[in-house]
Amino acid sequence: ELDKALHWQQKALEVRNNCLSPDDVVFAFSYEEIANIYSRKEQNEEALQYYLQALELREKSLPPIHHNTAWSIYQVGKMYYKMSNPKEALHYYEKSLEMTKKCFPASQLHTAPAILEDIALIHGYNSEEALQRRIEALEIQKQLKPINYSYLIRILDNITFTYKSQGHIENSLNFYKEAIQIQKEKQLDGELSLAKKFNKLAREYEAIGNMTCALHCYQEVISINQRYYPPSHYLCKKTTSNIKRIKQRLQ
């Protein structure tokens, strides 16, 4: 199927060559589509060359600051990262982010959080730079209209893991709790998924000796599980046992 798609995209490019000036910016869309297919075929060198062609044409034909150029820069960065060249990827990510911020108001920076996450990935979870980039992504995501709450939760989860990797457990739990509350309020991913997250949070609180918060989380778990399972179900029995244990420790 990918070979067929590539064939027809190349045919479309030939038609455009016969109808349009070589400098027409429309060609950039053809180059992008062909690059996307090569990328899916894992022919990364070919994909990179077409992404670079799209970028070169947009830089030549569009105003100096343009969202399509910013997107092309980002795609080149993604391809360099895929080809295990993080230094070049970071260069293009930073350039794309800078231009993207100049193209849109704060409420419309929909691609910026993803770019920031890709920058953070290059720096690694133990890096303070990665943490700051993820926090910036969170701040931007909260200003977007409309807000993609699923992606907001993903950012919070990434911040959670970053703090945990750095040994800042309390901060980690605060962000994880925020993610869970959003999932609960917006009714995302189903209640059983929510129960699993509350159970994980309870274990984390228990591990640091915060029995009051652990008890609250286990009570959330049992409240959800009892709506789906009989009392004899192993999940209900296990959570009931956890609640009993925590209450004994609080006495």
Please describe the topology of this protein.
Blueprint: H1 2-19, H2 27-40, H3 44-61, H4 67-82, H5 86-103, H6 112-123, H7 128-143, H8 149-165, H9 169-186, H10 191-207, H11 211-225, H12 234-250
Describe this entry's structure for a reader:
- The protein is mainly α.
- The chain folds into 3 domains: 1-101, Tetratricopeptide repeat domain (Serine Threonine Protein Phosphatase 5, Tetratricopeptide repeat, Alpha Horseshoe); 104-189, Alpha Horseshoe (Serine Threonine Protein Phosphatase 5, Tetratricopeptide repeat), CATH 1.25.40; 193-251, no CATH class.
- It has 12 helices and no strands.
Overall CATH architecture of the largest domain: Alpha Horseshoe
CATH topology of the largest domain: Serine Threonine Protein Phosphatase 5, Tetratricopeptide repeat
How much β-strand is present in the residues? under 5%
Task: Give, in order, the helices and strands.
Answer: HHHHHHHHHHHH
Regarding quaternary structure, what we see is single chain
Q: Calculate the terminal CA-CA distance, rounded to whole Å.
A: 65 Å
Residue-averaged pLDDT: 95
State the shape.
elongated
CATH uppermost class of the largest domain: Mainly Alpha
Low-confidence stretches: none
Major beta sheet summary: none
Q: How many structural domains?
A: 3
Helix fraction, binned, reads: over 70%
Rg, Å, rounded: 24 Å
Could you say which structural class the secondary elements and strand pairing correspond to?
Answer: mainly alpha
DSSP summary: helix tally: 12
- Beta-strand segment tally: 0
Could you name the CATH homologous superfamily of the largest domain? Tetratricopeptide repeat domain
